[in-house]
Amino acid sequence: MAAPVDISASLRTFRRLLLLCFGLISLLLGIAVATFFVHQARQTEQACATQLRLLGQLYARQLSFWRQQQIGAAELLSQDRRFVDLAGALLQRQEPGAAAALRERLQPLFRRSEIHALGLCDADGQLLLLLSDNPAWTAHFDPADARRSLALAQPLFSRITQDCPDSAGQSLPPVPPHMNLIVPLPAAAGGALVVFLDPLKVLIPLLHDWPVPSDSAEIILVRQLQDQILRLTPTRFGDNCAPLTKATPPPGELTLGRAMLDGRTGFIRALDYRLTPVFAQIEAVPGSPWLLAAKIDRQEALRPLRHSLWRTSLLALASLTGLGFILLLWWRQQQARYLADFHQAELRNRLLASRIDDLSRHANDIILLCDPQGAILDGNERALESYDLSLEELRQRSLLQLCDLEESEAALLWQQLSLQPAVRLDCLQRRKDGSNFPVEVSARWIEQEGQRLLQAIIRDISERKEAEERLHHQARHDALTGLPNRTQISEQLRHAILRAQRSHNQVALLFLDLDLFKNINDSLGHATGDALLRALARRMRSVLREKDNIGRFGGDEFLVLIEDIQELADIVLVANKLADTVAQPLTIEGRELCVTTSIGISIAPDDSTSAEQLIRFADTAMYQAKERGRNNFQFFTSDMNLRLQQRLELENDLRKALQQNQLLLHYQPQIDLRSGAIVGSEALVRWQHPQRGLLGPDLFIPLAEQTGLISDIGRWVLHEACLQNRLWQQQGFADLAVAVNLSARQFQNLQLVEEVLAVLRDTGLAAAALELELTESLLMSDVQTAVEQMQRLSQAGIRLAIDDFGTGYSSLNHLHRFPLDRLKVDRSFVQSIAQQDSTIARSIIVLAHELGLEVIAEGIETAPQRDFLLQHRCHFGQGYLFSPPVSAADFGALLRQAVFSPAE
Ligand SMILES: Nc1nc2c(ncn2[C@@H]2O[C@H](COP(=O)(O)O[C@H]3[C@@H](O)[C@H](n4cnc5c(=O)[nH]c(N)nc54)O[C@@H]3COP(=O)(O)O)[C@@H](O)[C@H]2O)c(=O)[nH]1
């Protein structure tokens, strides 16, 4: 089982990451906003400073100009000689009418709209003349100002006053706001001209004229008086009378008054008279002791920025909230999906794990779980069953103890396992009782709950091994006899040759072929043939030494290997022993059978050291033995090799024979023994070989059958015979019939009937004029098929005869099933008549009559044979007595020659 996954830890980590991301985004946004605003604040302050500087400078110039104007107008009068004289007279109180004259002189100035009143004061500042309707003005004139002006001999402006108490702190009669200008008269006059200016006309509007509406901006006009900064004009807020320097700032803060006292000009950040933070520009009014301060509350100056800051902060906050909300939603969604996936996967894993657990518990393979040292920790049911151990007993063993391995093999396996993640090997496993069984081990390292374990899946391959061995055995053994087959015996021969070469010894190869086995097989059936082969194989094996090998080479052929031969007599001994044991009668299915064998012998290394060649030589020698009358053995000789080559050449030539029209037919007449008339012919094939002359069928028909060429040859023979017979019929021998031999292969062709009918159609011969000769063994090999094939031929009107009747193992039980027309008594039985043994010939004739068949005897060489046959009601015959097989031309001549002499 895999270790449980800490899902909450994973989620917590994921959430932390998400929060970290959000925090980072917020921080970055905050830094961006703050940086932006610090920058903006700086920009705003600079813009404000620029604006204040321009305004300050502008106002300073305008004030200077206004001052000059006022002073200029007053000085113009003070420089008027008459006026100065009159003023002197008045001041010195010498001329009583001077006051009236002065009033008149002052009228033009007094009419100026900016002037409340005009007066003259003496050197002590005593107001001696007042040109005004309101005598209260006198109280609003400070003699100290006059004295100061006269002492400095400079014009002097008082501060603007309205309802300020006097220097003694007494309230004064009310007058409009005013500013007193004191212009000293020439020394002769000894006094000064006093002008009560109305600041509301020009000065105050000028100072209040701020370019844009503002809640806090103002121009303050001041002048220094000793260590005080006095306000010359009313200020916008609060106490208009107190000096600017009166305000006491918090420690470390700069006030406007302090800055002016310190003589600072230009842009400053300070607290004003209300102790409110302001941006201010201090400018000196040129040509005067006046200073002006253009100022605006910092709060107002920075208000748009603050608003923008708020808006931006709100926007950022809203964005962050939105982002946070989206992240939260996404997080929830992810969390839900993750949890769903996790639980689903966990469920799947659990299901899978339980299924796997279940499967492995009841698996067909052995499953073992071992610790890293190979000690078994657990095993499934199959393991307990296979080793016949309880779980406790199993746990007391190690994986290597279960494997039936040599010490070195076990060490190697363990070394491989320590180097590789997985190892596969085939070995044996030991059961509790010490027996073992073959297995395929797949061992691999696995991680289970954090532990490194060794898992071994062990498959019992006993069945597979057995099947493999069976297959291997089957591939190398003959299924029928259990002897080594062609492959194995050939291989054994190769090894034997090598051994013989090494030990300078000889190996004899005996090639055995049962004589006439085909007849037994065909006539008694395959089952009998098989039983015979099995019995003979057992017999032959039993007469051989243990170290001699015998194998079935194919069909009825066997190979025997004899090693360590001392002399040829040993081989002769073995060959005779084999021939004798084969020749012993056998009882198969209640029937006694006798077979013989022909043996060919070749010897390595004398004849050859090639296994294939040695087999071929022994085969050739075996043919020689057959030719020598069967049931004997022949050693291979070099001239046999020559015959073998000739056989190969013949086969090669036969392939070309048909194309090159080298085949021809001879016809042997078939005679009505009573009349001596030719009633038909038997077509017998010949081969006009270009080098070897005219060859009889015995020399090439067996070869044609072995190579399959018989089908083409047979087709040609049939066509040629039918065509020829039709020609003779057309030449006047209308009832003439023709008999054609049919080979086994031709008969087994399922298209035979169609092919024969096609030939009849092509040649125009009537079916009744054709007789097909079949051998006994051909019919008996598969009776049912033969019956069916013959019925189809017979139904088509074709006549059927059994050739060489009596030589095979015809079952008389089956004979009546075949739709036959004729039995042909074999030549050997006809010849036996001459030897006073006519029993079989007579029996066949009787049998034919009883079955309602015609009977024909072949190989009639003598008149007594003919007479005997006729006497026993065999009405047809053929043989050298009448004519050997002859060419078509000669046969035509025979036909025309009329009849053979009938029987006596
Ligand atoms: N499938 C095919 N088999 C064929 C064909 N042609 C021939 N054969 C088979 O070859 C066998 C040998 O034939 P052949 O050498 O032609 O011998 C025939 C006669 O020459 C011989 N014969 C006839 N009369 C006598 C005689 O009085 N004495 C004597 N010693 N021999 C004689 O017998 C052969 C004819 O025998 P059979 O066919 O049994 O009537 C031959 O047996 C065929 O099986 C072919 O085209 N196809």
TrEMBL record:
Q: What is this protein called?
A: PAS domain S-box-containing protein/diguanylate cyclase (GGDEF) domain-containing protein
Q: Where is the EAL domain?
A: 647-899
GO BP term, pick one: cellular response to nitric oxide
* Membrane-spanning parts: 309-331
Question: Where do the GGDEF domain residues begin and end?
Answer: 505-638
Which domain of life does the UniProt lineage start with?
A: Bacteria
Gene Ontology MF annotations: cyclic-guanylate-specific phosphodiesterase activity
The PAC domain sits at: 423-473
Which InterPro entries does the annotation name? Biofilm_reg_signaling (IPR052155), EAL_dom (IPR001633), EAL_sf (IPR035919), GGDEF_dom (IPR000160), Nucleotide_cyclase (IPR029787), PAC (IPR001610), PAS (IPR000014), PAS-assoc_C (IPR000700)
Which reaction is catalysed here? Answer: 3',3'-c-di-GMP + H2O = 5'-phosphoguanylyl(3'->5')guanosine + H(+)
Concerning PROSITE patterns, the annotation shows: EAL, GGDEF, PAC
Name the keywords, alphabetized: Membrane, Transmembrane, Transmembrane helix
